Amino acid sequence: MGRPGFIFxxxxxxxxxxxMTGFSVFLAFxxxxxxxxxxxxxxxxxxxxxxxxxxxxxKVSLVQLLPIAYRYPIEQVEGVEVAxxxxxxxxxxxxxxxQLPVFPTEIDxxxxxxxxxSIPPEQLAVWRGNRTGLLVGKTMADSFSWKVGDRISLAxxxxxxxxxxNSWEFTIDGIFRGAGNGVDEFQAYMHYDYFNESRTFARDxxxxxxxxxxxxxxxxxxxxxxxxxxxxxxxxxxxxxxKGFVQAFASQVGNIGKIVTFIMAIVLFSSLLVTGNAxxxxxxxxxAEIAVLKAMGYTDLQALRLILSENLLxxxxxxxxxxxxxxxxxxxLRFMLAKYLPGLALSGVQLLFALAVLLALGxxxxxxxxxxxxxxxxxxxxxxx
Amino acid sequence: xIENKRLLDLIKVSRYYRKGKQQIxxxxxxxLQVNASEFVALMGPxxxxxxxxxxxxxxxxxxxxxxxxxxxxxxTKLSSVKLGKWRAKNVGFxxxxxxxxPHLNAxxxxxxxxxxxxxxxxxxxxxxxxxxxxxxxKQRVKHRPSELSGGQEQRVAIARAIVGDxxxxxxxxxxxxxxxxxxxxxLSLLKSLNEDYKKTILMVTHDHTAADYAxxxxxxxxxxxxxxxxx
Lengths: 385, 231
Ligand SMILES: Nc1ncnc2c1ncn2[C@@H]1O[C@H](COP(=O)(O)OP(=O)(O)O)[C@@H](O)[C@H]1O
Ligand SMILES: [Mg+2]
Hints:
The complex is a heterodimer of chains A (385) and B (231).
Chain A lengths: L2 H10 L2 H35 L3 E6 L7 E2 L3 H6 L3 E7 L4 E2 L6 E2 L1 E4 L1 H7 L7 H9 L3 E5 H6 L7 E6 L10 E10 L11 E4 H7 L6 E2 L1 E6 L5 H11 L7 E4 L2 H43 L1 H10 L3 H37 L11 H28 L2 H6 L2
Parallel strand pairs in A: 6-10, 7-9
Antiparallel strand pairs in A: 1-12, 1-13, 2-11, 3-12, 4-5, 4-8, 7-10, 8-9
Helix pairs in contact in A: 1-11, 2-9, 2-11, 2-12, 9-12, 11-12
Chain B lengths: L5 E14 L2 E14 L3 E5 L6 H8 L7 E6 L2 E2 L5 H11 E5 L10 H6 L9 H14 L15 H13 L5 E5 L7 H17 L3 E5 L3 H4 L4 E6 L2 E7 L1
Parallel strand pairs in B: 3-8, 3-9, 6-7, 7-8
Antiparallel strand pairs in B: 1-2, 1-4, 4-5, 9-10
The complex binds adenosine-5'-diphosphate and magnesium ion.
Magnesium ion binds next to helix 1 of chain B.
């Protein structure tokens, strides 16, 4: 038996107590991990809403299309950086009920709008040059086991192909990532030219424009200016600033963030109490034994280290398992909730943070009992009966 | 001759306790010399300071004043870390209630003091086995304290005290919890450690027959050495 063996045996001495304490640490860190991921997801929600992006749609409804030529007047408006257009393709893969978010778009403005998308450069180059290329999000690619180079056909329940039928052929040219930046990875983008030239109706029309503005503070003004251009035309527009929406959403999310932080603090604090209490209990029971160890020659510091090590082993082991479980759970939830909470993820930085918290918890909860072991007076402890 | 080599020299050692406003002088200017390889029985009424004296000599308590020289070194001047190292090397404690770790088996209990040394796992094991053999418990190494009799538990505790090969064994009423037969066995064991292994032993006891195993009997009274008889 070495020192690690001694520490381990001390922990195994009261198995039920150790496991219950450990389990509470485990649960605390499963929760902590999930809450961290959730907090992240919510904070990404705000970014995603994009305070610097406006949406211009047909005044009548989203279903009405707009002329693609609107792009240029929109981009002339002061404060507008770029306008990209998108159209709802109404695509599905094999399963008609399972509509996929697939959007025809124009590559350059698209890339300017969505600079947070991460696409391998060589894949981007291939996509740019391939008319029937499709850029697919990682989550979507994974859920259909699509790989770069795969040829697939999507059906559209809106647009017929000039070749007859509603089937559209694509090559998977690129897979984009970006969940770490709050990007929804369950979507796909196709070339507008291919779409436009191959459909049987509504040529040169688009679903909506996404407008990037240079200063979110000007959002109201820019939106008004855009709509003014097309006033009294056959296709009037409605540009939503999203500002009110974003603000309301942000304050709600901010509150959620605070609540989540508050819950995390409570979870950790209660875990601290449970662990500290259990360890303190163990140490006070072992007063005489610790005194005997010191009589054998254990120094005060070695006694401190022994108790701290026991506590650290307990918390790191169970807390670490808890975090591991949280990672697995987050992965599963992220897949299931990909459409709703694209940012749900535990990043390496967060994991490091959680580990630091775990280490701190282990040290802090063990501090009082370890200090007591260190300060224990041998002669006095042994005379107590 | 080795018998005459001075191991312990206590010079005007006092240990006072403060109880409220009162000062209790448990040991008061006590002088005592112990030679290497002596077997000393320490007697005296309850509360006369026997345990206190043993604790001071073993370096787990500090005197209010006075010097305690062990092989010429004043241990009262040592820092707590150095004193810990000194204890590990030089002293083995044996207590009335054994103080074994209930969750460790006999072998593991005996190995405990060696965890502070640089011995390898194999060496620790070998030494612990050897110590258990000396106390006659080679057949019980895997037993936990709860699976041993009182006498066997005290043997394990003695093995633990000698495993680091200290010069000095300090036993505080080692047979206080044992019946007469077992008491005799433990005392014989201590005697053989003294005779065969030349251990210096200080043993607190209330029992005159126990004292008969020792070479010398000291009784404490009024905080000092009262009677001091050899043989
Ligand atoms: N930590 C302590 N605080 C106060 N008084 C103590 C302490 N330890 C021992 N004493 C007192 O010192 C006296 C001697 O104690 P002790 O050395 O244990 O006697 P013995 O072992 O001879 O019975 C007793 O009166 C006891 O109450
Ligand atoms: Mg006593």
